[in-house]
Amino acid sequence: MNVVLPVSQENRPALAKPVGAVTAALEILRCLGRHAEPRRLSEIARELSLNPSTALNILRTLEHEGLVALDRDTRRYGLAQGLADLAAPLLARDDPQRRFTLALEASAAELGVTVALWRRSGDEVELQQVAESDAAMRIAFTVGRRLPMFLGAMGRLVAARGDFAPEALRAGFDRVPWATTPDYAQWLAEVATAREAGVGIDRGYVNRGVIGIAVPVEADGPPNSIIAAAMFEVEGGPDPVTIIHRLKTVAALAAEIPGAPHA
Description:
Blueprint lengths: L19 H15 L4 E2 H8 L3 H13 L3 E4 L4 E4 L1 H13 L2 H16 L2 E8 L2 E8 L14 E3 L3 H10 L4 H10 L8 H14 L2 E4 L6 E7 L8 E8 L7 H15 L9
Antiparallel strand pairs: 1-3, 2-3, 4-5, 4-9, 5-6, 7-8, 8-9
């Protein structure tokens, strides 16, 4: 993650030849930002020791660009919405939801898989957000889709980290629409592996020829949110270890989103 230091006298780079008009414009913007109430031209020029004519020309330019607003009744200047629009891309980088979305999309594109955020809803998991690769043949899901909570790689995680009685596990297993039904003892062993490794894997039992890998968003307890990847099982496909590492990175970003069930 890139760290952007705030501009201050201590960390500003030295300039061989500062541009006076640019420096004066920034001083005017900072001056307007320091005061709760809009300022007159004379007040701005006096505070900054600027020539009134120079200050007026800069203010007119800033007004034209939407960074400063002039109240023509009071002849006072204040900051305008254009500053917020100018800063929006920078502020968005620090938005947890945007960071998560970008990581989700980057993972799908770079790994060539479909990556999704699923959330537990009763006895089901519901698709909240998904990103697909640009491959000609890719796996597609529709946001809002619901699946049985014990299905596939996600189901192994839910079963592994939930407090389910043996009969509830068996009943949930039987409700899954398997493409190829795994041996129940084998499935329980895979649930135990998921509990130990913190990763659920399904190899073609839900959809033939499709591998599913899932990791929890929550560090402990029953998983309310899960990051899962789905890919075709092909020779030379993405390395599962690489996928797991990337999914855990995406899950860590999902955990930072405020207001989510896992937050």
